[in-house]
């Protein structure tokens, strides 16, 4: 569906930001007025206008907090975090040396942390041991009883952030009585910006330490530990589940069979970095974000690096019940969720979200309540068996 912009990428990212209104992470009026000021395909205006909105909304939150208005402060700061993330989204030409990109990312982290401190049960900021370093995470508890509950391990994908993970998944899980451990893996959020960690295809090396960490927590029910991955995370979670067998269930949001196929198709006519200006917003962003998060020089190296990101030959190693989600209009991985589902030999289900019900976009942006309802209802049933 087209949402406020004709450009496919601008439309999708505006819908993504707006969809978090479900969990108080956006306000429709703020979305509409911000987007109205941005010319289609103007990435500089996109960053400036979203940053301006974020700063204005953050000020509302700071003033509310100073006045002792806890709920108002929490909600405004949560929206500001989402808007700062959105402002930074297209700043990928040279993010390692882009001071404004760093400022926006830090502002998104700061406003989220300040909002989270005002939650009824504030999450714990954690560091998950990983090789010779640690990965940042948040532990969200559905209650303060200390009793073991079903727990979701959650990570995003190609462009996720730890702060966005709350709106994307944790908020919906908490309402249903699940604890949630979110984390940035290599190539995601602050790990690439602050630690220089890049994506790796053998994602079990990332998830298994998170499983170890979760199982050491008294609040986690070891028999009801679930892994969910979003977007490229649909591949990453599937890869991890093929080798990490302490999981009670896995949700692929959405299913990704072969990243290499997607990048080959989208980037087949792209040359070196100087050639990017002639291509669409989507292609420019795809290459620039990939150069940064994969640690490669150009589109050709990105395509080559993606060759290992496939579930071909490993999907049949997944043993836990697995739900594969699919979107009718997915612009990145059309047809791949069905292929993942067909390759699985474990207990499995495939849910297709249709355009007419509002869930047809990649990862069902704009229909977050709908996909949460279907995924968590499925999990409730599987974990009760």
UniProtKB/TrEMBL annotation:
Give the highest taxon in the source lineage: Bacteria
One GO molecular function term?
A: aminopeptidase activity
Q: Which UniProt keywords apply?
A: Aminopeptidase, Hydrolase, Protease
Q: Indicate yes or no for the key word Transmembrane.
A: no
Task: Name the Pfam families on file.
Answer: FrsA-like
The UniProt family comment states: Belongs to the AB hydrolase superfamily.
The protein depicted here goes by the name Dipeptidyl aminopeptidase/acylaminoacyl peptidase
Q: Which organism is it from?
A: Amycolatopsis endophytica
């Amino acid at each position: 569906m087209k949402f406020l912009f004709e450009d496919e990428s601008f439309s999708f990212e505006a819908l993504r930001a707006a969809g978090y209104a479900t969990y108080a992470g956006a306000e429709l009026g703020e979305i509409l007025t911000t987007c109205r000021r941005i010319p289609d395909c103007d990435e500089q205006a996109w960053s400036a206008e979203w940053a301006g909105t974020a700063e204005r909304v953050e000020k509302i939150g700071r003033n509310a907090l100073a006045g002792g208005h806890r709920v108002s402060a929490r909600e405004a700061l949560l929206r500001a975090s989402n808007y700062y993330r959105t402002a930074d989204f297209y700043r990928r030409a040279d993010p390692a040396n882009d001071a404004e990109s760093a400022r926006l990312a830090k502002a998104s982290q700061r406003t989220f942390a300040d909002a989270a401190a005002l939650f009824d049960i504030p999450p714990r900021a954690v560091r998950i041991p990983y090789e010779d370093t640690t990965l940042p995470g948040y532990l969200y508890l559905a209650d303060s009883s200390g009793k073991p509950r079903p727990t979701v391990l959650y990570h995003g994908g190609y462009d996720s952030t730890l702060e966005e993970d709350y709106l994307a998944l944790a908020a919906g899980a908490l309402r249903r009585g699940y604890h949630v451990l979110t984390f940035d893996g290599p190539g995601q959020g602050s790990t690439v910006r602050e630690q220089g960690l890049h994506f790796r295809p053998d994602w079990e090396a990332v998830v298994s330490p998170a499983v170890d960490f979760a199982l050491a927590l008294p609040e986690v029910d070891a028999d009801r530990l679930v892994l969910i991955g979003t977007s490229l995370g649909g591949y990453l979670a599937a890869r991890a589940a093929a080798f990490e067998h302490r999981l009670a269930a896995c949700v692929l949001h959405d299913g990704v069979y072969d990243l290499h196929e997607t990048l080959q198709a989208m980037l087949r006519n792209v040359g070196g970095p100087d050639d990017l200006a002639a291509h669409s917003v989507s292609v420019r962003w795809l290459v620039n974000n990939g150069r940064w998060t994969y640690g490669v020089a150009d589109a050709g190296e990105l395509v080559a690096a993606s060759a290992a990101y496939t579930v071909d030959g490993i999907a049949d190693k997944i043993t836990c019940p697995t739900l594969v989600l699919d979107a009718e209009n997915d612009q990145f991985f059309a047809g791949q969720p069905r292929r993942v589902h067909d390759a699985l030999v474990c207990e499995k289900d495939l849910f297709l979200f249709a355009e007419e019900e509002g869930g047809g976009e990649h990862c069902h942006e704009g229909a977050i309540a709908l996909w949460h309802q279907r995924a968590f209802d499925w999990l409730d049933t599987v974990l009760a068996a």
